[in-house]
Amino acid sequence: MTTRSAGTVVPTVTTLAATAIVVADMVGVGVFTSLGFQVKDITSGFSLLLLWLVGGIVALCGAICYAELASMFPRSSGEYNFLTRAYHPAVGFLAGWLSATVGFAAPVALAAMAFGEYFKSIVPDAPPLLLGLAITWVVSFFHLRGVKDGSAFQIASTIIKLALIVAFIVAGFAVGVPQPISFVPTAIDPSLIISAPFAISLVFVMYSYSGWNAATYIIDEIKEPNRTLPRALFIGTSIVLLLYIALNAVFLYTTPLGKMSGQLDVALIAGSHIFGESGGRIVGALICVGLISSISAMMWIGPRVTMAMGEDIPMLRFFSLKSKNQVPAAAIVFQLLIANLLLCTQSFEAVLDFIQFSLTFCSFLTVLGVVILRFTRPTQPRPYRAWGYPVTPIIFLSVTAFMMYYLVVNRPLQSLSGFLIMLAGLVIYAIAQARFEPTAVQKVTITK
């Protein structure tokens, strides 16, 4: 078993910075693209906004449960740490293997390519691939300079993102032409809410909310984590919930449903309806700024998983190396190179398709661990106890189980492939255990 990583890192991350990383990791391109596919089958304004409210509540339930685990086992690396403690080091390694290889690198590559594509709405001749590569290196440079500089960059980019989104929402309601849509519940809403399109749409809404657990990957760097982390997870997720509802409300309020139905670039369409010909450039700039903070969040938290694995497993010791600024330089460069490789080969979309089931499965196991540990280790100190237990974990587990069922039924090949990727991690774990004796850290027995 593992304990909190040893080292000379002095916690410097404040509640503001931890909240910023949660918000930045959650708000990517999903909220700007999902609505077009939802309005194909759901035309009620109330039901459409309810989708985003339900998704936000589920994300909050997950954040509350993760906060309890983080207070019990305060170590950076997220699911790798939690699953190791709740189940077995091999289970934790599965999650860590996924995160260290493609779990963060593929979303970074996708966000970087999206950055290049949306930048074309500002500068039409801009080369998307070169821009994508450049933004990953620029962001990585700040995080290689140290936690202080990386934290400052994260806060600044996230605040700018939030300011631009709020300005867009206010401007949309102020100058947009109202459409004939109502957000008041009607007689048809109950049937829509229990329909298959509503359930399927909720799956994609939940993907837009992914990232609510971001701050759990940097626990070692957070000041007073038992207080700061639960606040950051709750505040960050709540902010995103309100933003998502407001953004979708302004899209629906200003843009005809027929124009958005089946379209991927919903935000650009809405922007052109609100601001005219310049709307595309305005929204493109907004999304570009937002993607910078998202890439920054993933380049901050992802390498902490690889670093923790390097501390525990001799075969991966290289990835535990830190720079003079006490950041996992080797792990940051490793993730950067994988992201760049995926970006250059355009293989990140296929990778993302394969790992969706695995990522959802890891979150499910983690929250299930909260319930299991209440029975198996009732005396384990819990500086923070999940609010609303057992309702909150039940809500999250029920929705997540449905998402996995949906993925298996509708994407059986991709789900199986993702599961096989995780099993490949077991092979590597077995090799590592066979070649090396457990480290001193791994031999520590968990006590109270």
List keywords for this structure.
single chain; 448 residues; mainly alpha; Amino acid/polyamine transporter I; 19 helices; 0% strand; globular; disordered N terminus; disordered C terminus
List the helices and strands and how they pair.
Blueprint: H1 15-26, H2 35-38, H3 45-72, H4 79-86, H5 89-103, H6 105-119, H7 128-144, H8 147-175, H9 189-193, H10 196-209, H11 225-254, H12 257-260, H13 266-275, H14 279-312, H15 329-345, H16 348-376, H17 391-410, H18 412-435, H19 440-443
Helix pairs in contact: 1-8, 1-11, 1-14, 3-10, 3-11, 3-16, 3-17, 4-5, 4-16, 5-14, 5-16, 5-18, 6-7, 6-14, 6-15, 6-16, 7-8, 7-14, 7-15, 8-11, 8-14, 13-14, 14-15, 16-17, 16-18, 17-18
Q: In terms of structural class, how would the helical and strand content be classed?
A: mainly alpha
The first-level CATH class name: Mainly Alpha
Number of domains: 1
- Strand count: 0
N-to-C SSE series? HHHHHHHHHHHHHHHHHHH
> What is Rg?
21 Å
Helix coverage percent? over 70%
Mean pLDDT comes to 90
β-strand percent reads under 5%
End-to-end separation in angstroms reads 14 Å
Plain-language structure description:
- The protein is mostly helical and 448 residues long.
- The chain has a single domain (15-434), classed as Up-down Bundle (Amino acid/polyamine transporter I), CATH 1.20.1740.
- Helix content is 71%, strand content 0%.
- The protein has 19 helices and no strands.
- It has helices at 15-26, 35-38, 45-72, 79-86, 89-103, 105-119, 128-144, 147-175, 189-193, 196-209, 225-254, 257-260, 266-275, 279-312, 329-345, 348-376, 391-410, 412-435, 440-443.
- Helix 3 (45-72) packs across helix 10 and helix 5 (89-103) packs antiparallel against helix 14 (279-312).
- The longest helix is centred in the middle third of the chain and has 34 residues, at 279-312.
- The radius of gyration is 21 Å and the shape is globular.
- The two termini are 14 Å apart.
